[in-house]
User: What shape does this take?
Amino acid sequence: MSPLKDTYRHQGLRRGLVRELRQRGIHDERVLAALAAVPRHLFFEPAFEAHAYQDKAFPIGEGQTISQPYTVAYQTQLLGVQPTDRVLEVGTGSGYQCAVLLRLTPHLDSIEFNEILFARTRQRLALLGANGAGLHCGDGSVGLPERAPFDAILVTAGAPGLPPALLRQLRVGGRLVIPVGGNHTQRMVRVTREGPETFVREDFEEFRFVPLRGASGWQIK
Ligand code: SAM
Assistant: This one.
């Protein structure tokens, strides 16, 4: 079977996954529709396809993971993306979250630290026709100043604190969604820039993420 096939069986499995996410409390219909539309199995090596519609994170190589569907839905829901929003994703990884965000806005940039994952994912997104995002390779913990300001910034790796550059690159009214904490568990945090110097922080559930690297991340060799 072609690895790029999205069959009725895959679509059925996806509907089941979306039902599960709804039961776990995801209620934003646009987010649920985006997850129902993106064929997650196409972000897996064909040999591991059977894992694609379980609500679990999965290794994608280079010590990194494709996030659990619940986490993707949870972060996307907190981000509250509108169709005209300019969005930055930090941590492109497999490109799955990127494809989900592209269902919500065409104005998307995504940055990945790991050069091997970056090259692989750029190719995958092109093959899938999901190449509407500006893809960048580099340290997203300092944001993407040349494309700022953003209405929404989503960080998909766990940070030791709030990266100052990401706060500065938010437009007034913009939201930063980022897991913050130790290197084992992190709390999901949303910061809204309510005025030029006014940032409001809200804390949500705990999650487990791979570490954010780079200047405002964890210093790992
Ligand atoms: N969003 C991804 C997906 O849908 O597959 C999941 C990403 S994985 C949980 C986190 C990613 O963040 C990894 O690919 C990692 O290399 C990347 N990363 C870590 N630190 C980074 C940084 N400073 N800038 C950009 N990417 C970073």
